[in-house]
Write a structure and sequence with these properties.
- By secondary structure, the chain is α/β, with parallel strands linked by helices.
- Helices cover about 45% and strands about 15% of the residues.
- It folds into three domains: about 110 residues, Beta Polymerase, domain 2 (2-Layer Sandwich), CATH 3.30.460.10; about 70 residues, no CATH class; about 60 residues, Winged helix-like DNA-binding domain superfamily/Winged helix DNA-binding domain (Arc Repressor Mutant, subunit A).
- The protein has eleven helices and seven strands.
- The strands form two sheets. Strands 1-2-5-4-3 form a five-stranded mixed β-sheet. Strands 6-7 form a two-stranded parallel sheet.
- Helix 1 packs across helix 2, helix 8 crosses helix 10 and helix 9 packs across helix 10.
- It is globular and about 50 Å long.
Length: about 250
């Protein structure tokens, strides 16, 4: 499936490639609607610079073979952060120290996430809603990283031109919108996990065997399902899936 792979299909391919190379704490963050940069950010970290390069090479190889897509790669000689850009999916492979410093999980999972666009109405609304910055979609990677470093120091992520456009607009933080359950945000692989759960396959070992992946990958998908549906455990997931007819069970034969 050459370049026709969807964002969710790319996420599954990349996560499995990272897990095969023993990546640490893999996290896929859906950012569609909050940035024009991508639909998903995938974050992970390595045990060493050698491991970091191996993770990046593993993803590149898997994506070329299974999705027919090559990445725009940044930071290949940098031991702290390698970025692989697949358009709608961007992969961040950090050293452990760099991941803790930049803390992109908190940045993008919070209600005060960075926004990316070039429309004044969106810019003003984002700042009024408490955004820490606003990034244009045509930013160079080096400038993107520089702005993120500024956020870590407490500086707003705004280019000079955007800052000038904000001078006439007074920013009032808005109340955070309550999180909503969104089953449509589940990837194809997460839906496979969900279907198996409903059918009674509940242990990580059995799920891994059915899907042909590792138990770590199963845990990753389960965590994402709980996060996206705002549920606390597998029993709630099964109940939710049945109530909302997300899985069709086969009729009893007798």
């Amino acid at each position: 499936m050459p370049s026709s792979a969807t964002a969710s299909e790319k996420v599954d391919i990349i996560v499995e490639a990272l897990d095969d190379k023993h990546a640490l704490d893999i996290d896929a963050i859906p950012v569609e609607g909050r940035t024009l940069v991508a639909d998903y950010f995938i974050l992970t970290h390595s045990t060493s610079s050698v491991h970091q390069r191996a993770l990046a090479d593993g993803v590149v190889e898997a994506m070329e073979k299974r999705a027919g897509q090559r990445a725009r790669r940044e930071g290949a000689t940098d031991a702290n952060w390698i970025l692989l850009d697949y358009g709608d999916v961007v992969v961040h492979i950090f050293s452990q120290e760099a991941r803790a410093i930049y803390d992109l999980e908190s940045l993008w999972k919070s209600t005060e996430a960075l926004r990316a666009s070039d429309d004044d109405a969106h810019l003003f609304e984002a700042i009024k809603s408490g955004a820490q910055g606003y990034l244009l979609k045509d930013l160079e990677a080096a400038q993107f990283f520089t702005l993120l470093e500024g956020v870590e120091r407490g500086e707003p992520a705004l280019t000079p031109s955007l800052a000038r456009r904000l001078l006439a607009e007074f920013a009032h933080p808005a109340k955070a919108v309550p999180a909503q359950q969104n089953p449509d945000a589940l990837t194809d692989r997460e839906r496979e996990v969900l279907e198996l759960l409903v059918r009674g396959v509940t242990s990580n070992r059995k799920l891994a065997a059915k899907l042909g992946v590792s138990e770590n990958t199963v845990k990753f998908h389960l965590r994402n399902i709980l996060d996206k549906l705002h549920l606390n455990n597998r029993a709630q997931v099964v109940s939710y899936a049945l109530r909302h007819h997300m899985v069709e069970l086969p009729e009893d034969g007798g």
